[in-house]
Structures are given as structure tokens and as C-alpha cells.
Amino acid sequence: MILLPTDLINLLSTYFCSRVNAKLRTINHHFAKAIKPPPLHIICPSLKFPNLKYSIQFIERLYKQAVDVPKPQIWLTSENIITAGWISIHCPLTIVGHPDKLTNVLGAGFLIQSSNFEKSYFNLSHCIVHSKLGQGIFAQGPLKLKLTHVTVVASKSSGILIRENIEGKLKNCNVYNSTAMGLFVSSSRVACNNCIITGNKWSGVCAVAGSIITLQNSIIQNNGEKTMTGCFDLKASKNNDSIFLDGINVQQRKDYILTKGGNGKISKLH
Length: 270
Hints:
By secondary structure, the protein is mainly β. It has helices at 5-17, 24-33, 52-65; strands spanning 40-44, 72-76, 80-82, 87-89, 93-96, 103-107, 110-112, 121-131, 137-140, 143-153, 160-163, 166-171, 174-176, 183-186, 189-193, 196-198, 205-208, 212-216, 219-221, 234-236, 242-245, 260-261, 265-268. It contains 3 helices and 23 strands. Helix 1 runs antiparallel to helix 2.
């Protein structure tokens, strides 16, 4: 008889847990521990979790009660999430927006400060962030940051600010019309793939304090207002800052000249 993995697990569990096999229940305990638990996911908004702030606080309480919390996820089913204050993240977490229409996060941005946890991380996907308070996304490490299909629009400061030993990955992300920088990276390493950063008042992509930024298949243009001095599409501030363009894949309009500045290194990766 050929059994599928699920059928085999059910058979073993039934055998080990039966009353006539009491000695084998201990074995089953170890068997169960060998299987990684599925992610803990929360649907928001829902009857039990009416808003994003409460959902995050619930997960933070779980972390205080237990060490081995299954990797938690919050699934946003609403097209609009309205918040009056920062969305503060103090624990490892994944937030997934509406997969079809994207979720609009209106009012304020994300404040990620979960470095108290070993191997901390924050993942965000399928969201459009409109922050009237400051940065669209502010992340402070050390931690791993992954943004996928995230757009930050018209932030009242820099669109995305990443600092203090963060390993960041941005894929299919856009940063438009920020009041300050588009993507500002300090003391961190960030890789961007298929991103658009345009129309930001200060520099579009800026590396400071020993940062390394890699841009692949991305469009960086129309950043830095003419009235602003020292602002460019790409700016590597000091000698220990680097921005690498992966091959010739940084796409620009044929008639557009990419502006560069700073005392750091801006060059092709290969």
C-alpha cells in the first residue's frame, strides 16, 4: 500500500496516540516536535482583530509569553487601512496586503524597531503607504528587511529610511514624490530589483555611513529639485559609501541624464 505523506503522518499519529500504546505516546511527542509548525497568521480586519494596531499588539504579547512563536503573519483583506499614528513594529513579523488590489495604508507609515530579537526580520508586501507624519517606512536594525510590491507615495520626509546594520531587499517597489530622500540608507546594505524611484525632492537614492546599495533593473530619475543644492538621482556621500548599478540594467529615458553626486563610489557592478 502506497501512502501519501499526509496519510502516513495521520496513521503514525493515530497509532502512537492510541490508549493501548501508552508507551509510544512519548515517541509521538518527539515526532510532533520534528515537524515545523505552520506560520501563525491573523486576518485583519476581522471580528477578533478589528484593526492593524490591535493585531500587532496581540502578536507582541505572544512573543512576551513564549520564545518559539511560529513565524507570525498578518493578512490584510481591506483595501484601506487608516491610522492616525505610526504603525510600530517591535517584533519579527510579516504583513501581507491585499494580493489583488493592494492595500492603501493611509495617515502614517511603518516604524520598525525589533532589534531586541535575535535574527529579527520584517517583511511587507502588496501595500501602498501614504504617510503624513514622516517617513513611509523607517527601519532601524540590526534586522533583515524585505519589501515586495510596496509603493511609498508623497511622504512628509524620506520615503524609505533604513539605518543601523540592516540587510535589506526591495523588489518591485516604488518611491514617489517624497518631501526629502526617496531611499535613504545609513550603515546598511540594500539590494533593489525592479524598483522605480522618482520625483523626490532631495536625492533619489542616498548612501551614507558606510552603506552599500545595489540597483538592478530599476528606474531612478527626476529626483532633486533644481532649487536644492547637493541633491541628485544617486548620491554616495563619503568615501566608504557605494552605489552599484548591476550591469547596464538601470533603465532611463533615452533623453534623460542620470545625475550623480557625493564623494563615494557610484559604478557598474560588473
